[in-house]
Amino acid sequence: MKHSFIDRYSEFGSPIHGLDPRTKIVCMVLFVLAVVTTPAGRFRLFGLFAITIATVIVLSGVPVLYVLRRSCLVLPFVLLTAAFLPLWKATADGQASLNLLGVQIDRQGLVLAGTMAVKGLLAATAMIVLSATTRFGALLKGLEAMRLPKVMLMILSFMYRYLFIAIDQSMRMDRARRSRDCGSGYLRRMRTLGNMIGMLFVRSYERSERVYQSMVSRGFDGEIRNISRLHIESPDYIFSAIFITCLAAIRVAGQL
Amino acid sequence: MHIPDGFLDAKTWVTLDVVSAGFIALAVRKTRRVIGEKQTPLIGVLAAFIFAAQMINFPVAGGTSGHFMGGVLAAVLLGPLSAVLVMSVVLIVQCFVFQDGGVTTLGANIFNMGIISTVAGYYLFRVVGHLVVGDGRRSVAVFVASLLSIVISASACAIELAVSGTVPLGVALPAMAGVHMLIGIGEGIITVAVLGLVSRVRPDLLEIEKA
Predict the structure, then answer these.
(1) Residue A106 and residue A37 in one domain
(2) What is the largest CA-CA distance in chain A?
């Protein structure tokens, strides 16, 4: 029942893990905003952003390789869209500035494609830092303290609680299918998949009924009360002050 | 189809963040009135279900594979507004926990995959259901709605990227729509099969109070 790909490493005890979830949410979202709004082609600034986030990763003790591997999930999208930008821009302006193996490549398009790839990677890295250093429950508590609608939070926490069970169930069914299905045709295979997903739905629905009944029998009246143990302490102030100063300094340096 | 950060310009992502937030607020208010307190565990568990179902890959032409999205399935089972909530929660978790899709582009991703696919898909299902006659009416409507919902979401994604100057519309739109036509066929077949199974096993579930 353990799926290590969900909030893995979030049980470590580093200074970053100890921060209040709100501090990390605000800092990482600010980081993403700072990166996304940086003009194209300022690769030196992106380098500074990368150093900032790398420092946080090192402090958190989360393996750098793990972060890199996860952030590479962005790359397929980069390849699909940004990769043909250089070719497109070349035909749009009618003046190619590079000629590579007989293919006209536009320098401006290349810069734009590189910018998008770097922005996507940096933003994903920041979110990996957030999810790898914060347990999902703590993340939800942080969002609750930041006044996200209660209904959404309850839905999110139910989803998270049953995600593992649903994934386990679907993996078990898929294993059963693979061990019995030796190369059937397209339509038949799709029907089997449909039946699997249908069964998954019926089981999920019946589970939600049981969960609801057991909640009602324990006095659930539509609201979940929990004790919030969130405290913003001095490490939070110090971390956010340094982090936000770094972001601001990088952006100001970019204006010079 | 999850757009990462940095691929949309500010005007596009800000607009879509606002639009999606508005839609979610509307959906929260409406579903609370129609289904009541029972909705919270139901929607949460079904979001987990959609998440798990999306991990199941199916073959698409040429040795590649696509995965199930489930927008129309959720809309037909729960009604369009509850389906918006289910899909949005899935996308929020994919963004924050799995880095599938960016933070600034979360609104765009929710708009494409959580709102368009469910709301447009649901009304397509209703309209086609009225146009076609015969025994297989429901299946035809579900198939067409699922197929088109995928194509429309993909087209919306292409248009957003083009408006942001990331890709040329003339290339992106036909490419995205074409590829997703093939994926949509799979989505259609699976959605029909899922609803067929549900109507055999628990026909009462097709009559859940809709929001």
Answers:
(1) yes
(2) 73
